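Teaching soon. Invent one.


***
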Amino acid sequence: MLRILLIIGAISIFIACERAENRFELKPGDILFQDLDCGPFCESIETVTPGINGAELSHCGIVIMENKQLKVIEAGGKGVVITDMDSFLTRARDGRFKPKVLVGRVKGWSENKLQQAISISKTYLGKPYDHLFDLENDSLYCSELVYYSYLENDKPIFETQPMTFKDPKTHELFPLWVDYYKEMNQPIPEGELGLNPGGITLSDKIEIVHVYGYPENYMPE
């Protein structure tokens, strides 16, 4: 009898979660934060700046409306592009086969202001990916696109922080970053200003309004 009650309880929780997800409505201007599972590079990004509730996040994109369909504008390996929503959400799944994606929404912004952010983001379409993670060049990485798109009084609303490429456990540079920048014949920008998906989720400018699935180490409240 106890086993039956536990099974019924688990089913009830599952149904409740499914109903909550079905009721959630994505809006243009929402920011999608993703645990991308792209190997050592993603892992090192996630390690240096854990996101909200410990979430390991390595990518982000902006929800837009394109041809009457919700899509995502993002800066990835192919540069700044528009991606189908299903393609974005199905890149990585948690143990429940849910997309490892959190949804952030800028607090207090009207639809007009969000549309302005989207319009700004589209001006960067076709720009190359920023392999150097440099805020001053003419290419963009994922968080940089978000940074330059959400403006208030012509200034970004999200704050930059000194970047680190060091393992927090050893305080030594990750070997992969040493090799990465050596191959490009560029200095490692340790301490230079930048931002990453995990850091943005900690901003007081946004709230996490939905969890599709659990990124690694995410601890739901």
The first helix runs from residue 2 to 23.
